[in-house]
Specification:
The protein is built from ten helices and nine strands. Helix 3 links the parallel strand 3 and strand 4. It has two domains: 168 residues, Rossmann fold (3-Layer(aba) Sandwich); 88 residues, 2-Layer Sandwich (Pantoate--beta-alanine Ligase, Chain: A,domain 2), CATH 3.30.1300.10. It binds pantoate (PAF).
Length: 274
């Protein structure tokens, strides 16, 4: 695996490798990331992954400074997953001193995580566009666990006519249903035990909505279920799967999305709803 840390190193590797599938990450890799690498590899191209903890997508109250970092462990995982190229740029490369451009996506970025974390999706869209410009991949792989992020990146790619195909990959879950996330490492033992209740509540709610129960009452019940498990629900919402607009009744395609605070950890999850 080639490890590139400067643009000349990246460009030399890029020339040698030909068409690429790309997996952008912030490191602290788990099975969910490795499923993205596997999906990219299965498409038959060489796989490039980036590791960059992007400061602009963290708010002032977020966990940028203590975000888990394990470069040596991550590189070993990428290498054994068959990655051909690891791109590890520094902040000076991604955000040079005279940089003056950023990307603001409206539409699917407006609600939910966009409302809870102002500036978050501008940070994501900007860094992803820069990474696409540097790597020039044919396809890029994103985990469905961050459903809204996938829709925001897809919207940006369509709006800016970027020549990359966005490939969503299903969420990888722990055996008890908890969606894998680098931030799960922050959970205490009792919190870790309680955490799968978010996914369970979503499963119950989607079952009830598909069975025809009233949406508002079902979502209210799901919030109660999550609160009973010791979490503070931020939102549990039925939305149009691509626009992320709230839906008062079942639309197609629909997604049930949720965020809840468990101790200091913000858990996200979502399931298809029709
Ligand atoms: O999902 C992530 O890990 C990040 O938001 C991403 C896409 C790597 C951009 O920093």
């Amino acid at each position: 695996m080639i490890i590139a840390r400067t643009l000349p190193e990246l460009n030399a590797a890029r020339e040698a490798l030909g068409p690429l599938g790309f997996v952008p990450t912030m490191g602290a890799l788990h099975q969910g990331h490795l499923a993205l690498v596997a999906a990219a590899g299965a498409a038959g191209k060489a796989v490039a992954a980036s590791i960059f903890v992007n400061p602009t997508q963290f708010g002032p109250k977020d966990d940028f400074a203590r975000y888990p970092r394990d470069e040596a462990g991550d590189l070993a995982k990428l290498e054994s997953a068959g990655c051909a190229l690891a791109w590890l740029p520094g902040v000076d490369i991604m955000y040079p001193p005279h940089g003056a451009s950023s990307i603001h996506v409206a539409g699917p970025a407006l609600h939910w995580e966009g409302a809870a974390r102002p500036g978050h999706f501008a940070g994501v869209a900007t860094v992803v566009a820069k990474l696409f410009g540097q790597i020039r991949p044919e396809a890029a792989y994103f985990g469905e666990k961050d459903w809204q992020q996938v829709q925001v990146v897809s919207r940006m790619v369509a709006d800016l006519h970027l020549p990359v195909c966005i490939v969503p990959v299903p969420t990888v879950r722990e055996p008890d249903g908890l969606a894998m996330s680098s931030r799960n490492a922050y959970l205490t033992a009792p919190e870790r035990k309680a955490a799968p209740a978010l996914h369970t509540a979503l499963q119950h709610a989607v079952r009830d909505i598909i069975a025809g129960k009233e949406v508002a009452a079902t979502l209210h019940h799901a919030r109660q279920e999550v609160a009973l498990a010791g979490m503070v629900p931020d939102y549990i919402a039925l939305v149009h799967a691509e626009t992320l607009e709230p839906a008062a009744a079942l639309v197609r395609p629909a997604r049930l999305i949720a965020a809840a605070k468990l101790g200091h950890v913000r858990l996200l999850d979502n399931v298809p709803a029709g």
